[in-house]
């Protein structure tokens, strides 16, 4: 695999195969290729989703993200309860292995089980080809952790990712390679188009209106048409249809967002009434305000999304556990981010010098935000997890709004009053509620907090001292060591969520 003239960069994208299941197999001294294992919480009944299945289960036709009751009868398998904190620890251990070979400046962690590596300077250093270097990293992970990996090699980040997702699956050594020429030969006609990084069912449905079902079709469309249909997203489609991605890992690391926000959300364990949902909202605001205080930040805007429950037909779908099944949700936190996020990720600027966050987390965030609305209700697509019905926010109805505060604050009292008012304004009190998301926008350092003639500075400081005391107690004794009385109501979810990581018990 000789490098061609003009190809200045070589990137690796390494994925840990069926990571959660592989960790559980390795801990039992088993191999994911031969051990039938699924990662699922048995306490949640047969309708719960399997977070991962071993490679051996995949060979038997069991798909990732299936429900337990969908596993065919006659297959003997181990059910491992999710241990999210342990998976994070193993992921950190594997990251440490990569650091023995490459600098942290040349690694971008994409997810708990996937990362990009700029291998360009290391091929000459280690006197290895890109394939040999990838194999060395993969073997080191397997030898020390018992976790198998696959890899994609490309001349840019996008090609490395596509090589991992598509090409690597069809070669014996699990290492795929793409440059721009091979991309046109092997990927242009690939279907379904949803297998391509950054193209979800919503974008695929909109492309289908123009008779486009693969990247060759995208490349043939007029640029002006794509911009009219997709706006700034057209830029990414145009580049990626040609196998082009100018962003580098160095640029991703150097990127500083112009504005930041924090957001959290949860799918409720059952249908909640208007009153019960307000209890959960209060818990969520309390937790997020403590995040603001811990970060020494203030916000100048809030947002609220409330997703209503499905209709009566869905309420009749009761699984073996006795809980209602909602077909478009796994019942877990889908997007909880307790950190500072670039606004540009969800709303990038329409410019050729686009935000560098696009090449990594930006695509995933944009697709999560845009595809459901772009897809027609009940649209069906085929991908890694088999056929799936896409039901966007329109399917069951929702209420959504954002407001500028006219001030910058991290006061729970002030922010809760604003959320209460917004909840009263937009939420239908007669409809059952199944999902709540909140967000705080325009984050700035605490010294920019608004103080005017009507501000009770002493009361504000007292509230802040209380918040800092709560954080100190929680840091030392755990999140459930000190709670507001709201969290002891029957409908409250905070105590249970505090014991979870990624929506599952740690």
From TrEMBL:
UniProt cross-references to InterPro entries, sorted A to Z: DNA/RNA_pol_sf, DNA_polymerase-Y, Rev_trsase/Diguanyl_cyclase, UmuC
The record's region (Disordered) falls at 351-378, 487-506
- Record domain UmuC: where: 11-200
Composition skew (Basic and acidic residues), residue ranges: 361-373, 487-499
Taxonomically, the superkingdom here is: Bacteria
Pfam (any one): IMS
Matching entries from PANTHER family are given as:
DNA REPAIR POLYMERASE UMUC / TRANSFERASE FAMILY MEMBER, DNA REPAIR PROTEIN HOMOLOG YOBH
Purpose of the protein: Poorly processive, error-prone DNA polymerase involved in untargeted mutagenesis. Copies undamaged DNA at stalled replication forks, which arise in vivo from mismatched or misaligned primer ends. These misaligned primers can be extended by PolIV. Exhibits no 3'-5' exonuclease (proofreading) activity. May be involved in translesional synthesis, in conjunction with the beta clamp from PolIII.
Q: Which family does it belong to?
A: Belongs to the DNA polymerase type-Y family.
Protein's UniProt name? DNA repair protein
> From what organism does this protein derive?
Collinsella ihumii
Instruction: Show the taxonomic lineage.
Output: Bacteria, Bacillati, Actinomycetota, Coriobacteriia, Coriobacteriales
């Amino acid at each position: 695999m000789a490098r061609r003239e003009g190809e200045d960069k070589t990137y690796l994208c390494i994925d840990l195969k069926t990571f959660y299941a592989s960790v559980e197999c390795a801990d039992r001294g088993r191999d994911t290729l031969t051990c039938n294992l699924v990662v699922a919480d048995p306490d949640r009944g047969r309708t719960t989703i399997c977070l991962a299945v071993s490679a051996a289960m995949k060979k038997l036709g069991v798909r990732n993200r299936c429900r337990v009751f969908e596993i065919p009868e006659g297959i003997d398998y181990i059910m491992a309860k999710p241990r999210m904190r342990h998976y994070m620890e193993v992921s950190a251990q594997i990251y440490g292995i990569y650091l023995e070979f490459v600098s942290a400046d040349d690694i971008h962690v994409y997810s708990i089980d996937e990362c990009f590596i700029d291998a360009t300077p290391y091929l000459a250093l280690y006197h290895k080809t890109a394939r040999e270097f990838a194999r060395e990293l993969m073997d080191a992970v397997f030898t020390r952790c018992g976790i198998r990996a696959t890899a994609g090699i490309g001349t840019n980040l996008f090609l490395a990712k596509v090589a991992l997702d598509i090409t690597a699956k069809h070669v014996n050594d699990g290492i795929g390679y793409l440059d721009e020429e091979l991309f046109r030969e092997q990927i242009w006609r690939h279907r379904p188009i949803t297998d391509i990084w950054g193209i979800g069912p919503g974008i695929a449905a909109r492309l289908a209106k123009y008779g486009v079902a693969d990247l060759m079709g995208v490349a043939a469309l007029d640029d002006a048409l794509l911009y009219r249909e997709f706006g700034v997203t057209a830029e990414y489609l145009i580049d990626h249809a040609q196998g082009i991605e100018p962003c580098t890992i160095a640029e991703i690391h150097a990127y500083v967002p112009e504005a930041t926000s924090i957001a959290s959300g949860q799918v409720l364990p059952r249908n909640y009434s208007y009153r019960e949902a307000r209890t959960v909202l209060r818990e969520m605001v309390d937790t997020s305000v403590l995040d603001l205080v811990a970060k020494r930040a203030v916000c100048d805007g809030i947002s609220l999304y409330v997703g209503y429950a499905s209709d009566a037909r869905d309420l009749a779908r009761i699984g073996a556990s006795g809980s209602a099944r909602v077909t478009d949700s796994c019942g877990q936190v889908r997007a909880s981010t307790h950190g500072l996020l670039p606004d540009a990720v969800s709303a990038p600027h329409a410019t050729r010098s686009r935000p560098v966050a696009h090449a990594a987390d930006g695509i995933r965030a944009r697709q999560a935000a845009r595809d459901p609305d772009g897809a027609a209700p009940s649209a069906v697509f085929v991908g890694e997890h088999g056929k799936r019905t896409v039901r966007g926010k329109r399917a069951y109805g929702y209420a959504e709004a954002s407001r500028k505060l006219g001030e910058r604050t991290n006061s729970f009292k002030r922010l809760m009053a604003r959320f209460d008012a917004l909840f009263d304004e937009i939420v239908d009190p007669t409809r059952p509620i199944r999902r709540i998301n909140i967000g705080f926008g325009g984050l700035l350092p605490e010294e920019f907090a608004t103080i005017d003639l009507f501000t009770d500075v002493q009361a504000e400081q007292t509230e802040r001292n209380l918040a800092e005391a709560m954080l100190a107690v929680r840091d030392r004794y755990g999140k459930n060591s000190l709670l507001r009385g709201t969290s002891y109501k029957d409908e409250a979810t905070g105590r249970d969520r505090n014991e979870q990581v990624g929506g599952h018990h740690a």
